[in-house]
Amino acid sequence: MKFLRPRPPLSAGVFLTYRCCCECRHCMYVCSPRWCDYWIDLAGLRVVLEKLVSCFRLYYPPEVFHRRRLLGLNYGLHLTGGEPFLRYDILLRAVEVAKDVGVPGLFVETNCFWCTSREVVYERFRELYDRGLDGVLISVNPFVIEFVPFERIDLAVEIAREVFGEGNVIVFYPIYYHQFKVLGVRGRLRFEDYLSLIGSDYGTYLSPDLILPMGRAVYRLNYIYERYPAKYFFHENCLYDLTRPWHIHVDCFFNYVPGYCAGLSLGDARRLEDILSGLDLDNYPILRALTKGLGELYRFAVENYGYRERKDGYVSKCHLCLDIRLHIFQEARDEFYELQPREFYERLLEELGMRIGAGGGI
Ligand code: SF4
Ligand code: SF4
What we know:
Blueprint: E1 3-4, E2 11-15, H1 42-56, E3 76-80, H2 88-100, E4 106-110, H3 118-131, E5 135-139, H4 150-164, E6 169-172, H5 174-183, H6 191-198, H7 202-205, H8 217-220, H9 239-243, E7 248-250, E8 256-257, H10 272-276, E9 279-280, H11 285-292, H12 294-305, H13 317-331, H14 342-352
Helix pairs in contact: 1-2, 3-4, 11-12, 12-13
């Protein structure tokens, strides 16, 4: 295959920033307070959203552009991060821009750190609703409550339902929300204490279907998952993941991030038409390898950059992919356009606190 041709997006998320007040162990995008305090440029956001809306029109019936409707994870557009409410002023303006260009199914994702009182939550949700926001996604999981007291999350769910209507509030995931209610969780909860509470049920509550084994999770949580040698994943390729139309992301630097593939960029989303017309894979060796298979990426990294297999194995194909990309980034950080944003790799390497690759991975 010479050209990679992503399909026009039918749903998307836009990172207003990578900066977050939390540092969840499972965060796919390795967000944390240590990221630079960089926020998306609103003029560029308008350009991207206009192009995304043109793509959405290929899929959606015309009437959805003229009315509020129920939200869906893989429908419309969400504003996310990082934590969007860290800069409420920018979030408000981003919502205005999105509604001005006719984005359907617009919602914001939050960890609820800011939900300290009924008045504050109501005021902000109401103001966002009045500016055109259709709904909210509220993160609820065993990692975010290490940082955010459960009462704030619970308050956000209650008031969001009041303001946006029950159908326009996505609790992600309800299984944890109900579990925390039943367990009577108050305040924050350390993950180790959560594990003690759920005992032998952890296979259900921490299944890879719920906690995707990507990003920070593959290093911080790998002890709870089965691990396999690299060759176990060699036959898997990522052509679908790199070209799928649903739930793609655009980050605050305007990288077009395929699916959930943090640290990979298909190009500048402000020139979406260039990306959709096809990427010449001769210019993107890592993407080219991924379209062939994880085995190809592994051989590429071993032969050209001295990558060595981790002795303790890999929990998923995305773990193998990320471990290899981290290694290549260290050896040749400026050689590969597709390894973006650079700070994703810098932050993760900093967190891991050591050089990788030599001596069998991290
Ligand atoms: S709250 Fe969300 S963005 Fe922030 S660290 Fe946790 S998972 Fe990542
Ligand atoms: S293996 Fe890499 S390219 Fe494939 S889905 Fe996972 S992160 Fe994306």
